[in-house]
Amino acid sequence: MLIVFLGAPGAGKGTQAKTLAGKKNLTHLATGDLLRAEVAAGTELGLAAKAFMDRGDLVPDDVMIGMIQGRLASPGSDGLLLDGFPRTLAQAQALDEALASAGASVDQSIYFKVSEEELVRRLAGRSTCPDCQRAYHDTFNPPHRADECDDCGTSLIRREDDKADAVRNRLKVYGTQTTPVLDHYRTAGKLVEVDGEQAIDAVQEDLAVAVG
Ligand SMILES: [Zn+2]
Known about the structure:
By secondary structure, the chain is α/β, with parallel strands linked by helices. The chain has a single domain, classed as P-loop containing nucleotide triphosphate hydrolases (Rossmann fold). Helix content is 48%, strand content 14%. The termini are close together.
């Protein structure tokens, strides 16, 4: 079984991927982790990837796909759950070709649908204390006094990346890249949309139905 998780940063894919992978005995491949593992292990593909990363370049699709292919037949696992790949139409098409040559294909893709407004709320609300490093969130874990650390009273700071405009820009780039990927799987009859704004348990139940 091969499942692809699609959804913007902040959509909650990672949490759900861990749970579903456990239930269905799938290997959870978060592509960032896969990349780091291959680099650390010094595999041929890991070394190739490192050369690109050291130059500040993106790791080419064929290197990423090679790593995924290498995990297709993971012993003791009933399949793969891809989390973070493919991100572009070119990657989705290259993945299809690579899988076809191994007699495999994507069985189901799941899109975690969360509105931009909600994603901004989740991602842009983060702040930290520069003194004791305690982390806060405006909605989910607010300090008792606005913008002040509960522990030491220091003024909280927000990273540039976590400010609303930066978050909106990241989401825009993500949407532009990913919309054609959604269309690709929808056309193939392999896309299920899950309402990612529900509580974690409710999302889990919808996923169980979608995956069967
Ligand atoms: Zn503090």
